[in-house]
Amino acid sequence: MIEDLESLPGVGSATAKKLIEAGYVTVESLAVTPLRELMSKTDLGEKTAMGVIEAARKALSIDFLTAQELWERRQTKKRCNTGSKKLDDILGGGIETQAVTELIGEYGTGKSQLCMGLSVRIQLPPEQGGLGGNALFIDTEGTFSPERVYQIANELGLDPKQVLTNIIVSRVYTSDHQSLIINNLASVCAKENVKLVAVDSMISHFRSEYLGRENLSERQQKLNDCLHKLIRLAEIYNMAVVVTNQVQANPQAFFGDPNRPAGGHIMAHACTHRIMLRKGKENSRIARVTDSPYLPSEPTARFKITEKGIEDDKNERDGEEVSE
Q1: Pairwise CA distance, residues 5 & 26, whole Å
Q2: 3-class SS at 266?
Q3: Is the peptide bond before 201 cis (omega within 30 degrees of 0)?
Q4: What is the model's pTM?
Q5: Alpha carbon separation from 132 to 121, 124, 239, 254, 314 (Å, rounded)
Q6: Rounded-to-integer distance, Cα 51 and Cα 9, Å
Q7: Could you read off the pLDDT of 203-254 as tens digits, one per residue?
Q8: Sign of the CA dihedral 180, 143, 324, 85?
């Protein structure tokens, strides 16, 4: 890694060492890092930091490119199966890399179950619907259960101990701690072949620590910073990022679902795909795509939480419209 950085014009061994110690271990990570962030994390001067970023961008030829070149680059995207074919179908084939997928729902709708199931399935080889990589689980609410992961792996015929070894867990206790962990993800993802980062939940600490309208602006700025760092990581390392989000009641909603995603416009703009989860009949769960730049609008899928993680609801009749 240090040899790659030293190949950049103006980057010597001393500068490369500083960059790696700060978590910038690839040319790609440098190319998408804001100038202020690089300066604050490496103690490099403005001129030096700007030169490093410009050299990285030139090395990757990302200043300008044609739409055709962008299309070809995006063909490297991959997808990981969720365990439910119907859910995979409305997601275009599964959870997508180079994107942030947001799972929204009340308590008990299956958000954490999906994250844990994906942490197992991401380790499967591509021919079996995985990405052949490891998972990193940022747990902000104490929802990660190694026992549940063990059960899912065992039911899928995998070695549960090896599966657990391939999942890196970070238990986060404050929003500042969460920001610090996300700041340092780049080096971990590169070293550990991470193909999935799951944050469960993204907004919990921000909601509990920044109370009142007078603190809303600061909260949203910090939340926005974390989300954009996750977006950059997803694109740099061609990995999937899944974040869960809570709901809040809208007292002005007299008709329809009174629940709306927490986090406001910051969450809405930052996440690539937004999936709303809710409970259905007979212990089923219903997923609905509420926003996406290219997935079909408003499709739904019904699934159940089982020993294997999640699976299609076998009690649903073929062709039955998903409604409650």
Answers
A1: 7
A2: helix
A3: yes
A4: 0.85
A5: 9, 5, 11, 47, 28
A6: 8
A7: 999 989 998 889 989 999 999 999 999 999 998 899 999 999 998 877 665 5
A8: positive
